[in-house]
Specification:
Blueprint: H1 3-16, H2 23-30, H3 37-53, E1 58-62, E2 71-75, H4 77-81, H5 89-101, E3 102-104, H6 109-113, E4 127-129, H7 133-144, E5 146-152, E6 155-167, E7 170-177, E8 182-187, E9 192-200, E10 225-231, H8 236-243, E11 247-248, E12 254-260, H9 263-271, E13 277-281, H10 283-295
Parallel strand pairs: 3-4
Antiparallel strand pairs: 1-2, 5-6, 5-9, 6-7, 7-8, 10-12, 10-13, 11-12
Length: about 300
């Protein structure tokens, strides 16, 4: 997690706080801080200074019901919203252009509140980002450290959300799946039915997979399988370009070990080499692949 993302998460946590939150509570909710207490305190102090330098009305108040007294932090929503903003005509034009180039599904309420005249025809959008109540529920749960309940691949899940990402035209949810007892990545539009809150999150926030960094065979809900393939010499350069981390063999071929969670995507990747690629390990994955190929005849 980079510093900008951490500051955004910290701002959201402070805004949603019903009572002042201690530094340790913010550390658990926000994530991305160093592990040791001393380095955490230094990073947290720098983040507080950064928020204040951006004009954030950061309040330091005693946490109620704690003895001896402990300082807590929050952002007052009314102070954060501030008074009515006044923009010059050229500034409003720039805002109007920006909101039309890429916009969330919804209305133009925010732009009108900033002072834009109603009834202005929208510009041609370069892109549109889908957004709905389900995504709003997920974002709120991630900020408030609440678990979510939903059905995915015909299985009822309880997931502690860590992050939502919009990549390649789809929203992805990264979090801790209690059923799998591991981190998982879900494509939100493949969730079946409603999404509801399911109590407080318990697991610490871990390292988050970014969908844009993952290949097709890594985007799945199944357990991770370490698969080793060999690619012939005449396709070795292409395999090296796609995979990066390969092992050269004396005959010019290369081997690579992949983390496979999506078997269908893995099959498609192996088949892209036609007869020039072979699965070496594990044996059951190799046997399943051969059986699947024979069934296609």
């Amino acid at each position: 997690m980079d510093k900008l993302e951490r500051l955004l998460n910290l701002t959201a946590a402070l805004l949603h706080a019903e009572i002042p939150l201690t530094a340790e509570e913010l550390r658990d909710r926000v994530g991305g801080y160093p592990d040791t207490k001393a380095t955490f305190r230094r990073a947290f102090e720098r983040d507080k200074d950064d928020l204040r330098s951006m004009g954030m009305p950061l309040r330091v108040e005693p946490v109620p019901g704690v003895d001896p007294p402990v300082d807590g932090y929050r952002l007052d929503r009314d102070e954060y919203a501030g008074t009515e903003l006044a923009f010059e005509v050229d500034e409003l034009a720039a805002l109007h252009l920006a909101t039309n180039l890429v916009r969330l599904d919804g209305d133009d309420t925010a732009l009108v509140k900033l002072g834009a005249a109603g009834g202005v025809a929208p510009a041609n959008s370069l892109g549109r980002v889908p957004f709905n109540d389900t995504l709003a529920t997920m974002i709120g749960a991630a900020v408030d450290r609440r678990a979510l309940s939903f059905t995915y691949s015909d299985v009822e899940r309880i997931v502690e959300p860590w992050k939502l990402s919009f990549t390649r035209g789809h929203w992805y949810l990264s979090g801790f799946d209690r059923l799998r007892n591991d981190q998982r990545l879900y494509r939100v539009d493949r969730i079946e039915g409603d999404v509801s809150l399911s109590g407080p999150a318990k697991a610490p926030i871990g390292d988050m997979n970014e969908p844009i960094d993952l290949r097709g065979w890594e985007l799945g809900d199944g357990p991770t399988v370490k698969a080793t393939i060999v690619v012939d010499a005449d396709q070795a350069a292409y395999a090296r370009h796609i995979l990066g981390d390969v092992v050269d063999r004396p005959d010019g071929s290369v081997t690579a070990t992949l983390d496979v969670r999506n078997i269908d995507a893995f099959r498609s990747f192996v088949l892209s080499f036609l007869e020039h690629a072979e699965i070496l390990e594990p044996p059951d994955l190799r046997d399943d692949f051969v059986e699947w190929l024979e069934a296609q005849r």
